[in-house]
Each structure stands twice: as structure tokens, then as C-alpha cells.
Amino acid sequence: MNNGKIMFGRTEQRLKHCKGMAPISDRIYKYIRKARTYYKKDGSIYSDMYKIHRKAGGGTKGINAIFDNVEIDIWEVVFSTGDFDYDCSFIELLEDWWIDKTDSRNPTIGYNIQKGSAGSHQGIHKGHKIKIEMSILESLLTNGYPQKLIAKYFNVPRELIFRRIKEYWPDTNRNYYEALKKFLKPTLEKYIKQGYNVKQIAEFFPSLKRENGVQRATVYRWFKWIWGTRNFKQVQRSYLKEIVRSLILEGLNIPDMIEDNRLQLSKYQIMDIVKLSWGSMEMARIELRTPILINCYIRQYSNEMIIKILGLPGKDSLIWITDACLGITPNQARNFYRKGILRNFDSFYCILPNNYYD
Q1: DSSP secondary structure, 279-336, as one string
Q2: 41-67 b/e with 16+ CB inside 10 Å = b?
Q3: Taking the CA of residue 123 as centre, how many other CA atoms within 13 Å lie in the half-sphere pointing to its CB?
Q4: What's the pLDDT tens digit per position in 281-333?
């Protein structure tokens, strides 16, 4: 204060927040309120504030006069390490060091009465910022870590994990299961597309009680949350159908698909997908190649070019596929489209990407 006396104190604030958990202005207002009761303690901060307040006429003028007589300096800034107990001990020792160095507990020099250990701290539930890195938390969720394991990993209460989830991803509304759904889905999709079954997928995810991963029931629950069904085969088929479709369009047969590293499925699994999706491999080829074949004849591509595009082994295959898809020979198809008869059947047009034939 302007009378030359000093006082050391601490205030704990949230990082990047202008208003802390215990702003300095709040501390001063607290002293002003107490001055009405303890003003008779001569030489105390309460007594001196009371005198300034009365001299200025009381009320708002008196409060403003107190602030005019107070000079605030920041002597140390300490950032949280994430260890609450360590941070509390360190800041108390630091406050004690300054109190002892300046002898501010001497009534003729300062206003400090107690040492730095006096008074409470803003605990982890009241703003102490424990370091939970967003990228690490996302990685744990992506790998299906349960709530207890995540809390154990960071050594914090689960409630704090929920608060960080809400802070980092507001759309989850601090809901662990919504966050799990958000990040776990891509991981599950990867394993599904690679052809793993439920037992194999379960072994990829850590468990508190099992060395060989989570229970299959846990995986089925994830499927229910994410896709609305526990039917693994139904979900798997929806993903694998697209992969099988692309392989059929490339001209691969079932033995070729088994050897292809994009699928880790057996012959019977592939046949099951083909049968449920198209009825047979022959029907699959017809259904998938018909729009491409029509587009090739519309553009008047040569037989050689069509064979290359469809991945056919030779001219005989082109004759067969044209007959199966259109019911006519390649020459008849080319003449049919050259004469413009197809203009009356716009529904047959199939627009393909510009780079499809590159």
C-alpha cells in the first residue's frame, strides 16, 4: 500500500481465462468486507483499509480510495505441471520464501500474518488444470479404451475425463459413449473391410480383465451404438460388398480374390457375399458390367478397348458378356447405338468419371 507496507499472496487462475478462480480484485474486496469487523486490529491491513475508507467518505468513494492506495505487482508466475499435490507444495514454498526474504510478517514492514501453507487451493474439481493431451485422449478412444483404463492412464477421476471430452469435442456433450462412437467407428471399419470376424476384432482392443482383448459381447454393443444393429454379418456385408464389387469390375474371379491382399476372406465367405448380393458370380458380372458396356458402345469404342476396360480375357468373352447383358452381338450393339436408337431410352445412359478409362 502507499504507506510502504507489503503483503504476499497467491491467486490461482485458469490458463487463457481473463477471470481466474480467485482473482486478485476478489481478494481485495474480501479484505474490505472484513475491515468492517476487524478494523480495531491496529496495524493490520483491515485497520488501514478502514481508515482510508472513512477518510474518503465511505461508500463507493471509500472503496475507490482503497484501490487507489493499493499497488499490485506480480512477482512470480507458476504454470501447472498437472500434478496437483506437487503444484500446491511448490507454490506454498515459493510464497514462504518471499515472506521470509522480505520479513513481511513483521507488523512494521508488512501485513502477512501466516505462512504460505495457510489457506486452501483451487482443487482439480475447481479449476486446477491437469494436463490431458487431446491427441492422447483421442488415440485412447480410437482404440476402444474403457472409461476406467483412460482414467487410470492419466491418473485422474473419470469425471475429469468427461469434462475434457466435452471441452475438446462439444458435440459429444461430455458423453463418453458419443466420443467412443465418433473415434472408434473408423477403427472398426478398417478391421471389417479387412475381413476379420468378431473374435479377431475383439482381440485388437485392450481389456482390464482379459489378456486376449475385450469380450465379443463388447464388440456387439459397439455395433449396436454405431450401426444400430448387433448383426455383425449384416454390417460386414455392406462394407465387403463394395470391395467385392470393385474386384468383379476389375475382372477378378473368386480364386483371384482370395489371393488379393485387399480381402482376407475365405472362398466360402466371398461366395456368400456374391450369392446374397447378386445371386451368382455370373449375375454379378452382368449386373455390374451392363451400364459400363452400354456406355462403351455409345462412345463407339473398339472391341479391343472394351475388352481392356472390362478386363476380359478375349473376344469370345466380349461376345458372351454382350449377349448376356444386351441380348445381341457386339456388332449389332455397335450398329444399334450408332443409329441413335438409344436416344429414345435415356434411362440406359450411364455417366462414368472422365478418368475411368485412363
Answers
A1: SSHHHHHHHHHHHHHHHHHHTT--HHHHHHHHT-SSHHHHHHHHHHHHSS-HHHHHHH
A2: eeebbbebbbebbeebeeeeebbebbe
A3: 6
A4: 878 877 887 888 888 888 888 888 888 877 777 777 778 778 777 788 888 88
Ordered by start, the domain boundaries in the chain are 24-126, 134-230, 288-358
Q: What is the pLDDT of residues 55-67, one digit of tens each?
A: 888 888 888 888 8
Q: What is the CA radius of gyration of the chain?
A: 37
Whole-angstrom Cα distance, residue 293 to residue 350?
9
Which residue type does 48 have?
Answer: D
CA gap 198, 231 in Å, rounded: 10
Tens digits of residue pLDDT in 235-288? 887 777 877 887 777 777 777 777 766 666 777 778 888 887 888 887 887 788
Nearest residue to 273 via CA among 217, 333, 193, 329: 193
How many CB atoms neighbour CB 71 within 10 A? 8
Closest by Cα among 25, 46, 26, 48 to 36: 46
The number of angstroms, rounded, from the C-alpha of 30 to the middle of its chain's C-alpha atoms is: 42
Distance CA 220, CA 216 (A): 6
Q: Tell me the residue type at 94.
A: L
Point out which residues pair with 6 in neighbouring strands: 110
Q: How does 115-150 read in b/e, with b if 16+ C-beta sit within 10 Å?
A: ebeeeebbebeebbbbebeeeebbebbeebbbeeeb
Whether residue 330 contacts residue 322, with contact meaning beta carbons closer than 8 Å, is answered with: yes
How far apart, in whole angstroms, are the C-alpha atoms of residue 138 and residue 295? 46
pLDDT score, position 346: 43
